[in-house]
Amino acid sequence: LYRGIDALSDLEKGSFSVYSGLGKVHLPKKSVENGYFVTYISTSWDKKVSEHFMGDDGGMMIQFDAKFKEEFGVRCCDVSWISKFAYECEVLFARSLDYSYQGFKCEVIE
Length: 110
Description:
Blueprint: H1 2-9, E1 18-23, E2 31-35, E3 41-44, H2 47-54, E4 59-64, E5 76-78, E6 90-93, E7 101-109
Antiparallel strand pairs: 1-4, 2-7, 3-6, 4-7, 5-6
C-alpha cells in the first residue's frame, strides 16, 4: 500500500485542505505542530464527509492545511477513483516511516 501511495503522490495536483473525522476522540490542544502517523490516515476534501465520521456521540475533526500535503516525506493520494465509496472524496496518507513531521500545523475542529 505504501508503494502505491508513494507512486501516486508524485502525480497529485491542487492545493486544498483535507479533513479527518474521529468519533469519540478529543485532544486538549486546538492545534498540532508535529506528529507521527503510526498507520494510514483516511481524509476527505469534503468537510461534510468527515463530519459524518465523527458520529453523533461527539468527537473531533482534524484539518490538514494545503501546505502540509507538500511537506518533505508526506505521501498522500486521491483514492476516490478506485473506491467503492467515491462520494467520500478520500485522500489517503501513508504512515510515517522513520521520522515525525515537523513544522506543519493541523487544526482540531470540535
